[in-house]
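Per-record layout

source: Dyadobacter chenhuakuii
name: DUF4249 domain-containing protein
length: 316
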Amino acid sequence: MRLHSIIIILISICFSACESLITDIPADKLPRTESKLVVQSFISPQSPRINVVVTESVPLFTDSGNKGGVIRNALVKISDGTKEVAIPFDSASTLYSIDTSVFPIIAGKTYSLFVSDGNRVATGVCTVPAGQVLATSYKLDTSFSSNIFEQDTVLTVQMSWTDAPRDTNYYRVRSSVDLEYSVVEGTSAETFKERRVKNRFNFNWDETIGRNDYQSDANLDGAEFTSPLGRTVLPNVIVYDYGNGNKFTLYPKAKIAMVMLEIYNTDVHYFKYHRSLEMRGTSDNPFIEPSLIYSNISGGLGCFAAYNSGQVTYRP
């Protein structure tokens, strides 16, 4: 038998073996699931508005026509056990929204959320943490990096706080900086001029040092907590070359107007939901099964949770 004939036989065996692993499952044998309401809302005494996002899930193995879009005609109500209000739909932001001056969110109170589209009902309950937690210390610094492509100046921040003893606490850290800096107006050498603007930039948290922007006091009751290192890139020097020797260098001359340091004292639902999102997004091992997204919505999916924000501002 010639060599090429042996190779053809071996290839045929491999293909037949592969085909034997494929099983066609009839459609009536697949699991039948119904589309559910998906609700997301996070309330806080410091938030100016109560926002509720209402969409619907798209079931696997079904051809229901659901696309998971926004539900615009739902009845959405929030209650504190004594007072109840309906939250209207805001077509501009495509969510249900109401000002907290109409329905205040009070620390320590329990709230319930009701959502119905006429056919399906979803509900959630959460309690706003009673206490605020403030940063007891913080460090601001800058670092400079350079390579053949670009140069970056990075503003860094790190804060510490003391855990409230005896209670089970869950934390999230956030920080932003308001910067004043120069930008260019004009598209030619004749119209070139600088203008001062102010914008807000959020810090991104570096988790390589073993800390996370979501932390709990499990086995650390009353301990001192430290945030990860937060980084944000400051505006760079830019050279504008309009030709014919018309070259201008813009120095942003960045000036810090304010740094906001926030520590969210969250309920367990807020913490578990956001941590499950992080775990789902950072899992890069193809052999690990996808983790489930935490939900505390009865009759549907999603999260209704609360936090109490402690804010410290630094103005140079």
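summary: The first strand starts at residue 37 and ends at 43. Helices lie at 3-20, 268-282.
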